[in-house]
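=== Per-residue structure ===
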Amino acid sequence: MSAREEKIMALAGVDFANKTKEELQDLFRKVLNGGTHGLCFSPYEEGQKPGNVLSENQIRRRMEIIKPYTKWVRSFSCIEGNELIPKIAKEFGIKTLVGAWLGKEVDKNEQEIAELIKLAKDGYVDIAAVGNEVLYRHDLTEIKLLDYIYKVKAAIPEVPVGYVDAYYEFSMRPKITEACDVILANCYPFWECCHIDYSLMYMKTMFYQALQAGGGLKHVIISETGWPSQGEDYKGAMPSMENAMKYFINTQLWSKEEDVDIFYFTSFDESWKVGAEGDVGAFWGIWDKNENIKY
């Protein structure tokens, strides 16, 4: 193998070519047991969806499951029981990236922002995320989003504040990037039709694009990345148990080697996501919908 080929292989991550399924599973468990920087928290049980009120019991039970494997947890909303997620996480000694879910409903947006500020003032928020992909979904204008970001920053100056969106939005929206204390970039090679063999290289380019958008001066966190274990292929990106394990292994090893903060998506499978993402939507978890580890 030439020096160039060796360099490309190193960028691509672990060489899985000669590994059996059992060896892949063993490596996955070893990496998982070594711990992650962060996990996105999936609170909804079978039959539930956003809008249903979460119980303390279900949050506590799932937090107990992920506790040994993560330092941080990310939540996506501050209402309808989601406000319990950072409170319970703190009981377990887990740091929190807490998000206010923003959309087209002004009343709900105001409620989310008020609860995020309250949680932060009460000491339950280590990083505050004002909105998740609202520009990508065209739910808010950039001006309105900036209003919300600066409102939260003024209310909780001691807590880093950011906005979550696809990595490329931060290059396209310099005012948003400037407003953020931290860049929270979603990086999904799967959704950009990337073959699993090149997925780590692709994710690195996504990360460095976000880093460049901040001029190299702002901390960039990969707020979401993952790979589905089942479902239809997406223009060359193939969901499978093996590919999901490979992607998890590579992202976690790179996270540790390069000291990149990654919130892996996601902790548990959630069936409600089928409607938004097709059949792959229900299969992004490390644990299945019944809270059993999948791999």
Q: What stands out?
A: The CA atoms of residues 182 and 219 lie 5 Å apart. Confidence is low (pLDDT under 50) at residues 1-9.
